Amino acid sequence: MKIEVNGAAQQVTGATVAEALAELGWEKARVATALNGDFLPKAARATTPLRDGDRLEVLAPMQGG
Amino acid sequence: MRKFYGVSLDSPLMLGTAQYPSPAVLEAAFRRSGASVATVSLRREGGQGQAFWDIIRGLGVHVLPNTAGCYSAREAITTAQMAREMFETNWIKLEVIGHADTLQPDPFGLLDATEALAADGFEVFPYTTEDQILAARLLDAGAQVLMPWGAPIGSGLGLNNRYGLKTLRAAFPDVPMVIDAGLGLPSHAADAMELGFDAVLLNTAVAQAGDPVAMAQAFAMAARAGALACTADPMEPRDMATPSTPVIGKAWL
Fold it and tell me: Which alpha helices (H) appear in chain B, and where do they start and end?
């Protein structure tokens, strides 16, 4: 299915957010996620299904003021 | 110094972590200044996040995640929730920006987000203006710390509305307050601390200085000097001169 990851179109086969993250190489990365604008806790990734057109944000620690 | 959600800070200097010439300079600026808090953000994963986070953790300072760049309460709330999981802290520097040119807070979105986040167990540090009514509403909404701006973010103008800040400080004598944003020189930090604020938070003035490490130290010294002066009960200014050397006993020449 086609989803949007950090603003870019991505083709994924995984049925859940956790599977999609693994597919994209972020299985072990320390990231925080939001799905369609809402926070998605780490513990919920494995049980949250993905649907065509979903918007997934994958964020990491960064410099800030 | 008043406590921030039960935490006493070793230094009244809070430093941002952005715009330094290199990670090594960032680290040296923190070590030399003894800054007690580091602000951080969350951005789209680009592969650099882990290395940055390792540096910050190694500093041994309190971490204050921000919601920089959020223009709505909803965006800020989601960002705060992500930050809490990522950085494992309930502290959040809540920014809900109202305008791209001034980066001034959107008071209405800020209030909504403060209310929602405080109810959800966050310890909110709202980035606000010096407006006293907004301050009261933020406190009612659950904030126990306020972060009034000195001047627009990155402007280096110092305390733009000194009268307003002084009034705000006097209106809420028990509330811990941080002057956040707009400081350009150590004298601005000393000024803020002399007025009775509990800490200063800055980034650009240090990171973009020719020598960020020396400037970080200068800010730390100025903030400490200002804090000490505040507790030492400064004299009241007056318009006319008054001799400090005794007049009695002066020779008749």
Answer: 23-33, 49-59, 73-87, 107-119, 132-140, 162-171, 186-194, 204-207, 212-231
| A-contacting residues in B 96-155 (Cβ below 8 Å) | 153
Residue A25 at interface with chain B, using a CB cutoff of 8 Å = no
A57: left (phi over 0), alpha (psi -120 to 50) or beta: beta
For residue range B68-110, list pLDDT tens digits in order: 999 999 999 999 999 999 999 999 999 999 999 999 999 999 9
How far apart (Å, rounded) are the C-alpha atoms in residues B96 and B118? 15
B166 is catalytic: no
Contact between residue B165 and residue B195 where contact means Cβ atoms under 8 Å apart: yes
Eight-state DSSP code of residue B211: S
CA–CA separation, B212 vs B191, rounded Å? 21
Total CB pairs under 8 A between chain A and B: 97
Alpha-carbon gap, residue B145 to B118, rounded angstroms: 11
pTM of this prediction?
0.92
Q: Partners of B64 in the beta sheet?
A: B39
Complex confidence, ipTM: 0.94
Q: Which among B121, B120, B165 has a CA at the least distance from the CA of B146?
A: B165
- Measuring CA to CA, how many Å separate A19 from each of A9, A23, A48, B43, B47? 17, 6, 10, 22, 19
